[in-house]
Write a structure and sequence with these properties.
Rossmann fold; two-stranded antiparallel sheet; 7 strands; Flavin_trans-like; phosphopantothenate--cysteine ligase activity; lyase
């Protein structure tokens, strides 16, 4: 179902960012093309080298390349290229930016430019996840047509137990496969 599908994987700052490596492997194994966009805070949790090696593409982190070459990454082009945008893990900050149309990095600009389905898989601590402002942002994302892949229940990095764990990579791939198989039937 994912063969030749072009997937943008947005990775945000969260301890759950380590799961992005496994998610990329699963998507590549399913023969999808994967372009990773890493937020600045995400690189504190997982390196671009890891994700570039697994995706077989350079990881994008900023609008303009850091080597002073003048080359820039066109968020509009990325948004048109993709068959789906998956943000996993999605931080509370990025969810809020998406919900309110704020655009201060390559991932948020690509999200606002995307014409394809968007899947948001949040990961955050229990109290953050349950906060009314975050819940309202989830509601807004759904109202825009985005699909929220609910966080799982279990032990969190803080030691608390509750909802907030990033959905497992296999579950995220299943959601994508289900979407594209239903799309084929239409």
């Amino acid at each position: 179902m994912l063969r030749h599908k072009k997937i943008i994987l947005g990775v945000c700052g969260s301890i759950a960012a380590y799961k992005a490596a496994h998610l990329v492997r699963l998507l590549i194994k399913a023969e999808a093309e994967v372009q990773v966009i890493l937020t600045t805070s995400a690189s504190a949790f997982i390196t671009p080298v890891t994700l570039a090696t697994l995706s077989k593409r350079p990881v994008l982190t900023q609008f303009v390349r850091e080597d002073q070459s003048g080359l820039w990454h066109n968020h509009v082009e990325l948004g048109l290229w993709a068959d789906a945008v998956v943000v996993a893990p999605a931080s509370a900050s990025t969810v809020a930016k998406f919900a309110r149309g704020l655009c201060d990095n390559l991932l948020t600009a690509t999200y606002l430019s995307a014409r394809c389905p968007v899947f948001v898989a949040p990961a955050m601590d229990l109290d953050m996840y349950q906060h009314p402002a975050v819940q309202e942002n989830f509601r807004l994302l759904r109202s825009y047509g985005n699909q929220l892949i609910e966080a799982g229940y279990g032990e969190l990095a803080s030691g608390l137990v509750g909802q907030g764990r990033l959905a497992e990579p296999e579950e995220i791939v299943q959601v994508l496969e289900k979407h594209f198989s239903a799309e084929r039937l239409v």
